[in-house]
Amino acid sequence: MLLQVEHLKKYFQIEQGLFGKHLQVFAVDDVSFNIKKGKTLGLVGESGCGKSTTAKLILRLLETTSGSVFFDKQDILAMNHKKLRAMRARMQMVFQNPFSSLNPRMNVGNIIAEPLSIHRIAVGKEKTEKVSHLLEMVGLSPTCQNRYPHEFSGGQRQRIGIARALATSPELLVLDEPVSSLDVSAAAQIINLLMDLQEQLQLSYLFISHDLRMVKQLSHQVAVMYLGRIVELCSVEKLYYSPLHPYTCALLSAVPSLNPSVTKTRLILKGDIPSPINPPSGCSFHPRCPQAKPKCREIEPALTESSDSHSVACHEYCK
Which residue of 81, 156, 168, 297 has the lowest C-beta tally within 10 Å? Predict the structure, then answer.
């Protein structure tokens, strides 16, 4: 197992009102999952459910409230600054916005070469050759090293971001909605590139997205997140063909079919997502759940394995 996340929690402290009343935001609340070497875990859910916060906690871009993160059996959260810096060469991130994540004052060559200099991987001619090789790997010409980010399209900028992430030869890439700002054709090209790179380099991915079609294409396992918690975790085949949680069923019903002869029944969820400052008692999904029972309002369901490698946090499985 390459990455093990166990009971991860992140509570933000905020002040509200004239007298500065202290409140907690339950951004990530008891999240656990594993990623095997060379595999992809898709993390899906509505905006604000804690997906990106989870990614930042894993890379220690944010400090956790509690929980543990093990990478290659090493405790990430217990590392000092020196050990963490060395470990980060093995864990890299590709950000959502391919324009704001690239320094507009640096040319492409310097952007990709920066990790090589920071981690002292290559210098001089070797560094230049490494940058050229990385550009070729992501489908760009080595001759574009002197150009600046604003001279590229959105899809090309995301390729530059991927090349920068690959510069340190990582084993894990955290992909934080890498195609959400791209048009359909550019997004498909980036997904195909990521699949090819995974096969060539045996990379592991944590793929965060709200697009279930992209998740299905790239992922081996899928974790569905709602209000800071994982409510369903299983293989991609089981999730798409035999979902158990009502929230998962509602998400899948919203995915348009490419076959015009197929009619789908849309499951409309009532109400809005509850506030993470004051989450509902019992099951956090019960105010919107069409199958909610009295015990759902009182008892919080644990994420339990209902069948072979299919875990769900629900008192009543989706029929």
Answer: 81
